[in-house]
Specification:
single chain, mainly alpha, 0% strand, globular, TAT_signal, Twin-arginine translocation pathway signal protein
């Protein structure tokens, strides 16, 4: 007689909760370790109020993939630069606690020790192909771990809010802009 799914330890609710708890502890420890060890500088990159140079490496790789189809290739560099500045402005208005959590997410994505296992991007973000980045985004979006799904949702929402807050983005989706008062 074959065991039922509830009898299989690898598929039990308790096993999944233990794994999720362990993964959460690992990510929290890695983020805290990066913050305490100086791996993640708290100094903003030149021209930015919040975003650090490590954050920019990640975002400059991910934003073009997220904006694919919404921006013509010739305008992509300007769209990425403007989106980064809008994102930086938005982050500058976050509460200190939300900014801390966002920085921890960027730290985990920026550190090579956590980036490889969690994203599948084993090298630098600068060298990742669009296909690899799409795979990472799909992997996090459809993960069985709620922590990774939340990370995907956070990155997606931050980038999309920054992109669609710009008037240049409205034409693509047919939005005429806010009414004049």
């Amino acid at each position: 007689m074959s065991p039922s799914l509830s009898d299989t330890p690898a598929l039990s609710r308790r096993g999944l909760l233990k794994f999720s708890l362990g993964a959460s502890a690992f990510l929290a420890t890695a983020g805290l370790g990066a913050s305490l060890s100086g791996c993640s500088s708290s100094t903003p990159a030149s021209g930015f109020a919040i975003l650090r140079s490590g954050d920019l490496l990640f975002l400059r790789a991910v934003i073009p993939v997220m904006l694919d189809g919404a921006v013509v290739i010739e305008k992509m560099p300007a769209a990425v630069a403007d989106t980064l500045h809008c994102l930086d402005n938005g982050l500058n208005h976050l509460s200190p606690e939300m900014l801390k959590l966002t920085r921890q997410l960027f730290d985990v994505l920026g550190m090579s020790i956590t980036r490889g296992p969690l994203t599948g991007i084993w090298g630098s973000w600068e060298n990742a192909s669009a296909g690899e980045i799409r795979h990472f985004l799909d992997r996090w979006e459809n993960s069985s771990l709620s922590l990774l799904r939340m990370g995907h949702s956070s990155v997606l929402q931050m980038v999309m809010m920054a992109w669609y807050s710009r008037a240049e983005s409205w034409a693509h989706c047919g939005y005429p802009g806010p009414p004049t008062v």
